[in-house]
Amino acid sequence: MVILFLSALSLGFPAFAQDGADKAGQQASASASNALPKPKIDISRFKGPIGKRYVLDNGMILLVKENRSLPMVTVSMIIKAGSVMETPEKAGLAHLTAGLLTKGAAGMSAMDISGAIDYMGASLDVGGGTDYATAHLTVLKKDLDTGFSLLSKVLIHPAFAQSEIDRMKKDVKAGILREERSPGYVAQKAYQKMVFGDENPYGRPVEGTVASLNAITRDDIVAFHDNFYVPNNCIIAVVGDITPAEAKKLIGKYMADWGQKPVPKPNIPAPPKMALRRKYINRDITQASILMGHIGVTRENPDYYKLYVMNYILGGGGFVSRILNTIRDDMGLAYEAYSYFDARKYDGAYTVGMKTRNDTAKKAMEETLKIIGNMKTAPVSDKELSDAKDFIYGSFARKMDTDSKMADLLAQVEFYKLGLNYFEVYYNGIHKVTKEDVLNVARKYLHPNRMDIVVVGNLKEAWIK
Q1: By residue range, what is the domain housing residue 278?
Q2: What phi-psi label fits residue 341: left (phi over 0), alpha (psi between -120 and 50 degrees) or beta?
Q3: Helix (H/G/I), strand (E/B), else coil: 19
Q4: Which residues contact 440 (CB under 8 A, 6 or more apart)?
Q5: Cβ–Cβ contacts within 10 Å for residue 127, how many?
Q6: Collapsing DSSP states into helix, strand and coil, what is residue 294?
Q7: What is the pTM of this model?
Q8: Residue 83 to residues 57, 111, 173, 370, 414: CA-CA distances in angstroms?
Q9: Residue 128 sits in the same domain as residue 206
Q10: Which of 131, 184, 183 is nearest to 338 (CA)?
């Protein structure tokens, strides 16, 4: 298992202020990077722009990448209408709104929409996340006109029928209650709340709670859609058998009546300061689910690529990472152990997770904290660094090996302000990382002595109080 969350994809923030010593270290690091060995794979695919970018008259950002190998087109949209835009009292509103878009629109019922999609052999999905909502259409070129018509209807003219609202609320609440029986879900929910606090949107489940869903009305849903589902709040990436002119024509044909307007700004309360918070949840189960961590970074942090490499070596590289190697293979304390930086639009979390027998839970946590602490004391080996880079280069190619992945990547590149030279930025960012960089970011961003910890398990067997 390889967990490399350092989430979606940016380097838009200004560099951190540095004193003279920091600048000297940075210059030395840059000089060292020039002597780094070249990767073992063909990097020609990292060259050049990844698509063409246009700002349309209605404020929408359009990205197009042509691929004539198959007569298909994929459309991936990001709508800045995630749960960061809702209030705690209405948690789940963004998720509910997105989920209802395909449940009836422009005089078509949910069955009409799904039937039309199935008839074409296409797919149309809309979903709500934390930073943004997404819409995804894949269709044969010959059916693109019909597919785009359906996409525009669900985005612009959703019905929000009360019967569908009631049905979806019931389904989501049933899912929440079902998940509450999962130790992993219980741990994740408690952990998010502990790290981010009650008011921060990252501190609560995207789907909301039973109580918050009960508080959401149809008027809330309509208002949320009116506020955030506007073209100047959207990014649309189109990949496949299509030209930019054709894409613009389709948008003009089916989204001409979609007017832009000012969009409310999100309110993101600062998370609580790092501290030694603990939450132990007793469950009569044989294996404990453990999450440990603290506030991390945004995706736009200039140290992103250094952190990516560092975390791969520490806990993101599966069987070759230090945490899993030591905790599972050498000590037999856990069968699953990993770490990741969930870097989002706003500060995400650095998280270490593991599953272990109750009687080894305490020892596994203690040893993992030691491993994290050791990451801050000495440089990684040459082999660890080169192996991490080679894997990261190779795995990056899998992020763009289908039109669907490429469309998603294009939209995320725009959302995180990476620029159309993103592949080169990515390659250079990874290539320039030195052992000193890895040590420096470990010292700066890892805080094992200030980690929040959540344990869900049989606390008596685990000797945890």
Answers
A1: 20-47+273-462
A2: beta
A3: coil
A4: 25, 306
A5: 15
A6: strand
A7: 0.88
A8: 27, 27, 17, 36, 19
A9: yes
A10: 184
Distances (CA, A) of 309 to 197, 345, 425: 29, 20, 15
CA distance 448 to 416: 29
Maximum separation of any 2 CA atoms in the chain, in Å: 66
135 lies in the same domain as 246: yes
Q: Are 106 and 153 in contact (CB under 8 A)?
A: yes
Q: What is the pLDDT of residues 387-436, one digit of tens each?
A: 999 999 888 777 778 999 999 999 999 999 988 999 889 989 999 999 99
Residue listed under structure tokens 């920091």: 22
- Nearest alpha-carbon partner for 429 in 7, 3, 11: 11
Rounded to the nearest 10 degrees, what angle do helices 218-228 and 162-179 cross at? 90
Whether residues 249 and 278 share a domain: the answer is: no
Q: Write the CATH number for 220.
A: 3.30.830.10
Helix (H/G/I), strand (E/B), else coil: 73: strand
Number of domains comprising the chain? 2
Report the DSSP beta bridge partners of residue 127.
Answer: 134
Tell me the pLDDT tens digit for each residue of 23-73. 333 333 333 334 455 555 565 666 788 899 999 999 999 999 999 999 999
